[in-house]
Amino acid sequence: MATLQSAFQEYWPHLAFVLSLAVGGTAAVHAAMTKNDVRAAIGWVGVILMSPLLGPLVYLIAGINRIRHDHMSEQRYKAENDYSRVLGAPAADISAIDAPQFRSLKVLGDRVSHFSLLDGNHVRTLLGGDQTYPAMLEAIQGAQRTIALQSYIFDDDSEGRKIVDALVEARDRGVEIRVLIDAIGSKYSHPPIIRRLRKQGIPCALFMTNPLGFLRMPYANLRSHRKILVVDGRIGFTGGMNIRAGFVTEVAGAETTGDTHFQVEGPVVVQLMGVFAHDWKFTTREALPYDTWCSDTRPAGAPGVPARCIRSGPDRYIVGTHNMLLGAFAVAQHHIRIQSPYFLPDQILLGAINTAARRGIVVDIVIPGRNNLRLVNYAMFAQLDQVVRNGCRVWRTTGNFNHSKLITIDGCWSYVGSSNMDPRSLRLNFELDMEVYSRDTARDIEMMIDKEIVQAEAVTLEGLAAIPFRKRLRNRVIWLASPYL
């Protein structure tokens, strides 16, 4: 034993060197073989080689997508056999919007989404928590059979407790309920709302709680950023809003955060429910049968509009939103409006936006003047010159922070939902968006965006150049870490 200990003391540097080569080499090979983005591959290989022991550990925690593509895809395909069918739903006819440039975009959506573009949907725009939460509560209070609720952030505050109380009342009426909250998002509230839900006996779960299998920790880079509420398989809500009191004027007062949500009826609600059912099954292994959780009842009243859900995430739907936006910017002929709280598109999307501007398309980009994420704001300013220089009009709002994620093209096509235009949303998060072919919906969104522009400040190259060098350097340094902000 003494001889072995003596040998170890003498040769441990050599053993550590061999171990670092083995571990670092294995991690570097894995990164080079599995990363499809050359910049990501170079970055990770560099981190690993520069720090042969610490680098592989960081890569193990933050660099590997542990969602098994084959396993998750198998689960989702099985569920889609049910949730992709919408009985009696009419196929979409986009000729009514009289904009032939969107025919190719519909084909792109057919191939990206795996959901059909279906007609007969009613879409209602809801502004902030003042309109959204009462509408959600009304739907929950009227539920007769089922409630499915999914959110990234669900705070244990005055608004969150109202939702929980309504869910308890619905449960007592015999309504089946499932609530899914992201494991990271749940930590925004102390104590987390999941404790209150469990105490009240509401079936609930945390998404991506323990992906490493042996470490009791959430995997910070793979988050469910989706926002879904489906009641009786008939009424749906989706958009950009989390559940927290800061969106309500009565609570937050002059500091109320703005956002936009959407209430929908029609066949697209089945698609919303399908996405929830997939995520719930992945998290809990419980299947939610179509016949229980969906309704084939169509909304009465005026004819509806074509719409469908677009999923994206670090599984087989990766870059779904990225591909849809590239297609939308390519077919634009008149005007592109973008409102995003976190505008950090990658070079491919920047190229598409700039190319549209160089084609003579009016491109308006609205970003917050006051951002809730300071580091993201710094990173945004590091690359704004790239769009301003090419003719895009960038506007900084002067009001309260607005969390809305809204895009319209040519007054006909709208893209709304949970996706920010940043690397995390486009590649790491599980996101859910909705494309809508409707002049009325696009007009509502354009009016909201234009209202922000009227009171906004234009970002100019002169203004960007006037920022002190130390701040511009700070912005660029933080911009280098933008994929993980």
What does this structure look like?
The chain crosses the membrane at residues 41-62. With 485 residues, this protein is of the alpha+beta class. The protein folds into 3 domains: 14-63, no CATH class; 69-84 and 118-305, 2-Layer Sandwich (Endonuclease, Chain A), CATH 3.30.870; 320-484, Endonuclease, Chain A (2-Layer Sandwich), CATH 3.30.870. Helices cover 45% and strands 17% of the residues. Helix 7 links the parallel strand 2 (146-151) and strand 3. Helix 2 runs antiparallel to helix 3 (54-63) and helix 5 packs antiparallel against helix 12. Residues 68-80 and 211-218 have low confidence and may be disordered.
Summarize the structure.
Residues 220-247, 398-425 form the PLD phosphodiesterase domain. Helices cover 45% and strands 17% of the residues.
Walk me through the topology.
Elements: H1 2-34, H2 38-50, H3 54-63, H4 69-83, H5 103-113, E1 118-127, H6 128-141, E2 146-151, H7 158-172, E3 176-182, H8 193-199, E4 204-207, E5 228-231, E6 235-239, H9 249-252, E7 260-265, H10 268-284, H11 290-293, E8 305-312, H12 320-331, E9 335-339, H13 347-358, E10 362-367, H14 374-381, H15 384-388, E11 393-396, E12 406-409, E13 413-417, H16 423-428, E14 431-437, H17 439-454, E15 457-459, H18 461-465, H19 469-480
Parallel strand pairs: 2-3, 3-4, 9-10, 10-11
Antiparallel strand pairs: 1-7, 1-8, 2-5, 5-6, 6-7, 8-14, 9-12, 11-15, 12-13, 13-14
